[in-house]
Amino acid sequence: MGLGQDVIVELEAIVGSDHVRTAKGDLEPYARDATPLFRGVPDAVVWPRTADEVAAVLRLATRRGIPVVPRGAGSNLSAGTLADRGGIVLVLTRMTSILEVDADELLARVEAGVTTAALAEAAAAKGLLYAPDPGSRTVSTVGGNVATCAGGLRGLKYGVTRNYVLGATAVLPTGEIIRTGGRLWKDVAGYDLTRLLTGSEGTLGVLTELTVALLPMPATTNTGVAYFPSLADAGRAVTAVIADGIVPATLEFLDAKCIGAVEDYAHLGLRRDAGALLLFGDDGGADAVERSLTRIGELCTRHRAMEVTLAEDVARSEALLAARRCSLPALSRLGTLTILEDATVPRPRLAEMVGRIDEIAERYDVSIATFGHAGDGNLHPTCVVDRHDEAAADRAHKAFGDIFATAIDMEGTITGEHGVGAAKLPYLQARLGADQMALLRRIKAAFDPAGILNPGKLGS
Amino acid sequence: MGLGQDVIVELEAIVGSDHVRTAKGDLEPYARDATPLFRGVPDAVVWPRTADEVAAVLRLATRRGIPVVPRGAGSNLSAGTLADRGGIVLVLTRMTSILEVDADELLARVEAGVTTAALAEAAAAKGLLYAPDPGSRTVSTVGGNVATCAGGLRGLKYGVTRNYVLGATAVLPTGEIIRTGGRLWKDVAGYDLTRLLTGSEGTLGVLTELTVALLPMPATTNTGVAYFPSLADAGRAVTAVIADGIVPATLEFLDAKCIGAVEDYAHLGLRRDAGALLLFGDDGGADAVERSLTRIGELCTRHRAMEVTLAEDVARSEALLAARRCSLPALSRLGTLTILEDATVPRPRLAEMVGRIDEIAERYDVSIATFGHAGDGNLHPTCVVDRHDEAAADRAHKAFGDIFATAIDMEGTITGEHGVGAAKLPYLQARLGADQMALLRRIKAAFDPAGILNPGKLGS
Question: Where are the domain boundaries for CATH 3.30.70.3450 in chain A?
Fold first, then answer.
C-alpha cells in the first residue's frame, strides 16, 4: 500500500517539497469532500502551481499506474473528488490568477483554482456578469465548476456553465497539454473538446486554465415571492408564466417542509401556512424588469397564490433570495446527516415529481423536504437523519434509489447539476443504458489509457 | 470497385428497393455538395426512413468495411458530405416528421431531415423562436445543422446551434441506437455526448432525431444600417456598442467590394462611396429595441459613421437584412467559381483581419471581398474567379492558406461555422496541434472502430 519513497521524491522534485504532503494528519482533510458518508484516504496530496507541473505529475502517474484525483475546493456533493483507490489528490487551489477580464471581448481568462465568486467579482468590477451561480460559488473553483458543468439559480434564462466556457487548457492523463477553443464565440474546428471536458468530472483531463464568456451586467435585478396552497398550484403558475412568453432569470421553489425549516432557522417572516413558496426574479432594464415581475405576480394570483410580494428594494430582494440559499443549512440543522439530492424532470412535471417524492419518503419512513429550480425542473430532495441511526440512513438510501428511478420514468435524470461522481455511478446505467455506458468507457480509454485519472468515477 | 450485388440486395432488404440507387445518373447528384471543386462519386445512394433502418445499414457497413457518408441537404461548404472514398451516401431527407412543438416545455422534437426553416415555422406558429439561423436554413436540415454546429446571424446574443440541442438520437457506426440528453435544461449524467455529436460532422454517429430548445418569440425586431468611411471605423463602433453594454441580436458587416456587388445585383439603394456597411438589429420589447437601436446609431455616428438609418417598418427591415443575405449570390455573379470561406478572429481584431485579407488578395492577384458577422468575428472572405482559369484558382487556394494561417496567428480559427469536412482537414493540425489531432483520432476510433463513417473527414 501507499506510494514508494521514490515516487514521493519525484513528486517533490516536480512541485517542491512544500507542496507534497503524506502525513496522516495532512491527508485526513482530503479524505472527504462535501458528500456525506463517502470517504477515501489518499496516499499523498500534491499542490501544483502550473500546467507543466500537472503534466509532470500525470506522466509519472501514468507510468507508475497511480490514481490521481483532481480537486478544487472539494465542495462537490457526488463524491466526485474522492480518492477511494488511494493515490494522489491533486489540489489546484494554488492556481488562483485571474489572468484577464476583457470588457471589449466580453471574456475572462482564469486559472482553474480561482473561486467562482472571485471571478464574478472581478467581472462585476468591470461592469460584467459571469452568469453561472452555483450555490457553492463562494468556495467552489471555476475549474471545479467547469469539471462538473455547475448549474445554479439562473439556468433557464442563462443556461449552465457549459454555455459560458469558450476555451480550456487541459492536461491529458498521458501528460500532453492541450488548448481547446479560445476567445471565439464561433469555432467548429474539431470535435467539441471544450464541451466534452466540461462535465467530465476530472476523468478525462485536468483543467488548468479556462476562458469564459461574460455578459454586460444587467442594469437592475428584482425579486418577488408568491405563496401557494400547494406545489401543484405553484407548478401551474410556472407553466402560465412560460406560456406568457416570460423566461425569468430566477424561478425557485420551496415545499412546505422547507418553508418551515428556513423560517425556524432564519426568521425571515415566511408564511408557514403555505404549501409552497415560489421565488421569482428577473434582470435587465428597469422598466422591463418591473413589467416582467408585475406580470408574473398577476399570473401567480390568477393561479391561486395566497399572497404575492415584490421586493421594494435591493436589500429585501437579497433577503428573499437568502430564503432559497439557506434552505440547505436550515434543513441540515434538523439532524446530523443531510443527504442532498439532485433529480431533474421536465419542468411541467415538477409538482408531480415532488408528490412522488413525498410518497416515497412516507413509504420508507424518512423525512424528505424538497426545494429547487422550478424554471428548469431541477429538484433538490433533501433527507435529514441521525448520523448514528444506520437503519434510517439505509432507508434514506433506498428511498433515493426509488426517486432516481421515478425521475428516469418521467423522462428526467439522476443528476441535473451535482454530477455523477462515485455516489451516482451505480444509478448511471439506468439513465444511459448499456450501450451508452460502454461508449463512455471507450471515450475514457481514448483519453486515459492507463485509467489513472479519477478512477471509479465517470467512464468506469 | 463498387459494392457487390449481395450488398445491394441487403441494402434493398433494409430500406426497400425504391430507396437504393446505384445507376450512374442517380449517383451524380450526390457526387457533390455545395463546396466548389470537390467531387466524389458514391457507389450507392440510400434513403432510410427510420433509426432502425440506419442501424441496419451501419451494421452492414461496419461488417463489410464500406464507407458511409451521412447527408442532409448537402448544402455544406466544407466538402463534409463527399463520398470521396466511394461507398454509400446515406440521405436522411425522408425523415421529415416534426414530432412535437411544445410551448409549455419550450422545445421541439424533430426527425433529422426536417429543414431548419420548417422547424422555425412550426415553432413560430406557436409563438416560439428557434434561434439558430444559418444562411442555408431554407434548404439545410436540422440534422445537418446539428452535425456541423451551424451558426448564423444571431451568434453573439443567442449563441450557435450547440446551445439549442437538448437531446439527440444517434446511431453509432456499429449499429447501437443511443439517446443522449432529453427534455431537460440541466442534465450532467455522463459525458456530454449531445455536444460531442454536435459539430462532429457525421463522423461519430448518424443523427436521426433531435430535441431542441425554443424561446418565446420576441415581441418586435428592428434593423438599422450605418455606413462608414472604413472597416476600421466600423470595428471601433462595434467595440463601442459592446462596451456600452449592448449585445444586439444582429451585427453584420459588408466591405466596400461587397457593397458594390450587392448594389449591382439587388439595387437596394446602398451607398457606394462607403468603405464599410454595418447592419445592426435587435429584438425584444418594443421600447427596449427602440432604445437599443437608437443608442447603437448614436455610437456609430460618434465613430465616424457617414450615415445611419433605422428601418421605419418591417418591410424595410427585411430589405436591409436582404443586403446581407444576398452578399453571396451577388458576389457569385462576378465569376464562375465562388470560394466562400469562414475564418474567425476575436471580435476586436476584425478590421485588422480584413486588412490582412486585402493584402493577401493583392499579393496573390485575386479579388477577395469580405462580409460576415461583426458581432462574433466570423468573417466570410469570398473569392470569385473564372472556373476555367486554373492558375487563378490555384492562387486563390494559396491565398486562403495564408488567410487561415493569419487567423490562427491572431488567436482565431480556420472555421467558425462551416465545418472542417474534407476541405479544411489539411489546415486543422495548424489550429489544433499534433496532440489534439491524435486525441481526435482516438475519440473517432472509440465511436467507429472500423472507420466506416464519413472517412477522410474529422477524426482522420
Answer: 220-324
* Start-end of CATH 3.30.43.10 domains in chain A: 5-91
**How much is the mean pLDDT over chain A?**
95
The answer to whether B288 faces chain A, any CB pair under 8 Å, is yes
A39-73 burial, b at 16+ Cβ within 10 Å, e below that, comes to ebebbbbbbbbebebbbbbbbbbbeeebbbbbbbb
Q: DSSP character for B350?
A: H
Cβ of A436 and B180 within 8 Å? yes
Domain topology for B5-91: 3.30.43
Residue A313 banded pLDDT, cuts 50, 70, 90: confident
Domain A98-216 classification at class level: alpha beta
Q: What is the distance in angstroms between the Cα of A84 and the nearest Cα belonging to chain B?
A: 20
Owner of C-alpha cell 448544402:
B75
A421 touches chain B (CB under 8 A): no
Q: Provide mean pLDDT across the span B25-51.
A: 96
Q: CA of A441 to nearest chain B CA: how many angstroms apart?
A: 9
For residue A389, give Cα distances in angstroms to A78, A230, A330, A337, B216.
22, 32, 20, 10, 49
**By the CB < 8 Å criterion, does A151 face chain B?**
yes
In CATH terms, is domain A334-424 a member of 3.30.70.2740? yes
Minimal-distance CA residue of chain B relative to A349: B105
Q: Which of B162, B189, B447 has the CB atom closest to A420's CB atom?
A: B189
- Burial string for A368-406 (b: 16+ CB within 10 Å, else e) reads bbbbbbbbbbbbbbbbbbeeeeeebbebbeebbebbbbb
- Residue among A79, A90, A128 nearest A112 (CA): A90
Residue range(s) in chain B whose domain bears CATH number 3.30.70.2740: 334-432
Residues in chain A closer than 8 A to B186 (CB atoms): 151, 155, 160, 344, 373, 376-378, 416-417
Chain A positions touching B245 (Cβ under 8 A) are 127, 216-217, 219
Q: How far is B308 from chain A (nearest CA, A)?
A: 23
| Cβ within 8 Å, pair B191-A127 | no
pLDDT of A1: 56
Q: Residue A317 — very low, low, confident or very high, per pLDDT cuts 50/70/90?
A: confident
Mean pLDDT of chain B: 95
Which of A45-54, A321-330, B32-41, B191-200 is least confident? A321-330
Segment A95-100 mean pLDDT: 98
Between A190, A415, A442, which is nearest B436 by CB?
A: A190
Contacts of A344 in chain B (CB under 8 A): 184, 186-187
Interface of A with B in 83-142 (CB under 8 A): 103-106, 127
Q: Which of 3.30.70.2740, 2.40.50.140, 3.10.20.310, 3.40.50.150 would CATH assign to domain B334-432?
A: 3.30.70.2740
Q: What is the pLDDT of residues B213-260, one digit of tens each?
A: 999 999 999 999 999 999 999 999 999 999 999 999 999 999 999 999
- Interface touch B172/A459, C-beta < 8 Å: no
CATH 3.30.465.10 location in chain A: 98-216
The C-alpha of B388 sits at a distance from chain A's nearest C-alpha, in angstroms, of 31
Closest chain B residue to A174 measured between Cα atoms?
B435
CB contact under 8 A, A192 and B149: yes
CB within 8 Å: B195 and A195: yes
Looking at 3.40.50.300, 3.40.190.150, 3.50.50.60, 3.30.70.3450, the CATH number of the domain A220-324 comes to 3.30.70.3450
Sequence-separated (6 or more) residues with CB below 8 Å from residue A325: A135
pLDDT tens-digit profile of B378-420?
A: 999 999 999 999 999 999 999 999 999 999 999 999 999 999 9
Residue B1 has pLDDT above 70, yes or no: no
Query: Quick one: pLDDT at residue A324?
Result: 85
Would you identify the CATH topology of the domain B220-327? Alpha-Beta Plaits (3.30.70)
Model confidence at B313, pLDDT cuts 50, 70, 90, reads: confident
Angle at B280 between CA B277 and CA B285, to 5 degrees: 165
**Residues above pLDDT 70, as percent of chain A:** 100
